[in-house]
Amino acid sequence: MTELDNDVVALMSKRVLEIAGCLGKTVDLNGKQVPIKSFSDYVDLYLSVANKSRTEPLPRMTEKVNGRWEVRFVNSIATIKGGTHVDYVTNQVTKYNIM
């Protein structure tokens, strides 16, 4: 292999964004500072894209209770599309928060 495919580069770049959002530290990618300093900033990346085609913005729920919190990854892959295990937990949380 003499070069990386565009898909591999995109995946690695996404991993850098995930790391920046999870660590809350300054992170550089290719010599440029990543504009993500917190998990809240990371969430904003997804909401800003999703809200472009909506008349009302999507609701946003984040809370930092202490230094420990979770972002879901399965086999080192962010489960951004969820799955049955994610649906189960999400349904339990939203059942009591959205009424």
UniProtKB/TrEMBL annotation:
GO terms for cellular component: nucleus. It catalyses: ATP-dependent breakage, passage and rejoining of double-stranded DNA. Pfam families: DNA_gyraseB. Its cofactor is Mg(2+). Residues 71-95 form the DNA topoisomerase type IIA subunit B domain. Keywords: DNA-binding, Isomerase, Topoisomerase. One of its GO terms (biological process) is resolution of meiotic recombination intermediates. GO terms for molecular function: DNA binding; DNA topoisomerase type II (double strand cut, ATP-hydrolyzing) activity. Its EC number is 5.6.2.2. It is an enzyme of class 5 (isomerase). InterPro entries: DNA_Topoisomerase_II, HATPase_C_sf, Ribosomal_Su5_D2-typ_SF, Ribsml_uS5_D2-typ_fold_subgr, Topo_IIA_bsu_dom2. This is DNA topoisomerase (ATP-hydrolyzing).
